[in-house]
Specification:
mainly alpha, MetI-like fold, two-stranded antiparallel ribbon, globular
Length: 303
């Protein structure tokens, strides 16, 4: 251990504790990585090795036929683009609404601060249900439009609470008062002073929102009937559904070879769909990891 140039010799107990923690972390890392490596190996292994259960960790054989089958599915790339639109635009809308609401609730001079907080907490415990939500979306004219996916999750009570705690702990009231003495209004304070100092919470909120939009598929099932607007999760579900439906067609034709081939592809396509759906998130997380670690510490220390 070293503090400001002063070295402290670790005791025997500290070495034992460090070794124990290292072993636990290594075990947890292996348990975390194994499913990912296994799914990827299954997706690129030969179809016969997959259906016979020969793959344990590393791929056996090499085949991209299942990837080609999924990628060549009608509207696959269109749906992938739709998902990026929902994730990017939805995150932008959500971050804007959350930052403005969280900043307002963090200020002591906001009159409706307590009332608004209570209303938000109620929404975390109770929801209107599927049928009222569908009726609301339909009557607002949002059904079968992109807004049906973008607007309902624009405000999340938990994210607002995180933003509020961040602004309370990191943006002093004196800074706001100094800016107003210099002639700045509330919007100038927010966009020219608060936001430049809040890159951490903005990145955290963007990450949370992007992951939520990327993984979301149930709202699209409810509110979208146009295939040109559906996200990739719905299309990948259709790929699995159609292949499982068509798996037994070969029996009617007495073509057992065709049936075995379809069974092989059906099993492997499941793993391909998993890989294709998580690739963007796997790329995004390392880029925002340092902000994510800081976000976990928000609210952990009280002074």
């Amino acid at each position: 251990m070293k503090i400001k140039g002063i070295k402290f010799k670790n005791t025997r107990d500290e070495y034992v504790l460090d070794s124990f923690v290292t072993i636990i972390l290594v075990i947890l890392g292996i348990l975390t990585l194994y499913p990912l490596v296994y799914v990827f190996s299954m997706s690129i292994s030969g179809a016969s090795a997959v259906i016979s259960g020969q793959v344990r960790l590393w791929p056996i054989g090499f085949s991209l036929d299942s990837y080609q089958k999924v990628i060549s599915f009608p509207s696959f790339w269109k749906s992938y683009g739709n998902t990026f639109i929902y994730a990017f635009c939805g995150s932008a809308i959500s971050v804007a609404c959350t930052v403005m609401c969280g900043y307002a609730l963090s200020r002591k001079n906001f009159v409706l601060k307590n009332f608004t907080t209570i209303v938000m907490l109620i929404t975390m415990l109770f929801s209107g249900g599927i049928v009222p939500s569908f009726i609301t979306i339909n009557r607002l004219g949002l059904y079968d439009t992109r807004w049906a996916i973008l607007l309902p999750p624009a405000v999340n009570a938990w994210n607002i609470i995180i933003a509020r705690v961040f602004f309370q702990q990191n943006i002093p009231v004196s800074l706001e008062e100094s800016a107003k003495i210099d002639g700045a209004n509330d919007m100038m304070v927010l966009f020219k002073i608060v936001l430049p100092l809040s890159s951490t919470i903005v990145a955290i909120l963007a990450l949370f929102s992007a992951v939520a939009h990327w993984n979301s598929f149930f709202p699209a099932m409810l509110y979208l009937s146009n295939d040109n607007l559906k996200p990739v999760q719905i299309v990948l579900r259709d790929v699995l559904f159609r292949n499982s439906q068509n798996a037994g067609v070969g029996i009617l034709d007495q073509d057992m070879t065709m049936l075995a081939q379809r069974m092989q592809y059906m099993m492997q396509i499941k793993y391909v769909c998993i890989i294709l759906s998580i690739i963007p998130i796997l790329i995004l997380y390392p880029l925002l990891q340092r902000y994510f670690v800081k976000g976990i510490m928000i609210g952990a220390i009280k002074e």
